[in-house]
Amino acid sequence: MMRVCLTISIFVFLLSCRSAATRHELEYGGRAREYLVIPVEQPRSMIFVLHGGGGKAAHMIRLAEGLPEIAKQRHILLVYPQGIDKGWNDGRDTKISTAISENVDDAGFLDSLALKLAADYKIPEDKIFITGISNGGMMSQRLACESRAFRAIASVAANLQESFAPKCKPSAPISTLFILGTEDPLVPYGGGDISLFKKTRGRVLSADATLQFWRSHNQCNADSVKTDIPDAVKDNTSATAETWSCGNARVRLIRVLGGGHTWPGGLQYLPEVVVGRTSRDFSASEEIVRFFLGD
């Protein structure tokens, strides 16, 4: 108990007391899987937030800036799972992480955890959502393909994995939001090799092909609604939004012109020369919550 309390205290200290995250474990697939929860009074919905490759659950709380404050106001239970050796098995065929090399059943783990927490906190089954950045965004898309629990996803800085696309067979329509930077130096907006420090880490479809995949699956209308997001800050980025109606689902793209491999409105977690620019024109956290809750 002392060790758990110390760990929680360290988390709270690192986050400058901005959010009281508690640490938990779930036994799944022969492993003790870790996750953090930011509790909220009378939760009405739940959002899973997935870190990127090489990241940690605790760091994701800081990176996705503003989300805990929004969740408190909107009665959203936030869950931050931890990947195996800081990575997720998102379905790529390139063995670039322990999770992928060992074919870890991350989809099963996240699904099981979501159903457990929904029962524990009495969350309605249509109010369970998942988002993530980079490897976490790709993992969110895998859940869109395979999950029994999640009703909508938001993928930040992550197109659809090229090798996984033919295997993606969702059983029902699912609303999908993409927030993608046109100058992402790691996951190219136009598709192709995922590259980090001159090493290839699999391939992705282009943003256009990714959106077409989900529009086709959700049987969306051909016409879309396009809007410009106000250019509030002169930071060499701007953003536009495009939304397709799809009967029982929606597909939405926020295109960040000049944006990098980042969470708009969030932490610039690495220098621009490595990950590109973080747009300050809007908050990805706010846009994701609005999308999930149907605002």
> What's the name of the CATH homologous superfamily?
Alpha/Beta hydrolase fold, catalytic domain
Strand order of the largest sheet: 1-2-4-3-5-6-7-12-11-10
User: What shape does the CA trace take?
Assistant: globular
Query: What low-confidence regions span 5 or more consecutive residues with pLDDT below 50?
Result: 1-18
CATH fold naming? Rossmann fold
The succession of helices and strands, N to C, reads HEEEHHEHHEHEEEEHEEEHH
Integer average pLDDT: 92
Structural commentary:
Helices cover 29% and strands 26% of the residues. The chain starts with a helix and ends with a helix. The strands form two sheets. A ten-stranded mixed β-sheet has the order 1-2-4-3-5-6-7-12-11-10, sandwiched between helices. A two-stranded antiparallel ribbon has the order 8-9. By secondary structure, it is of the alpha/beta class. It has helices at residues 2-14, 57-63, 67-74, 98-101, 106-121, 135-146, 207-217, 272-275, 284-293, and strands spanning 22-28, 31-38, 45-50, 76-81, 128-133, 152-156, 175-181, 192-196, 199-204, 225-229, 238-245, 250-257. The chain is built from nine helices and twelve strands. It has one domain (20-293): 3-Layer(aba) Sandwich (Rossmann fold), CATH 3.40.50. It is globular and about 45 Å long.
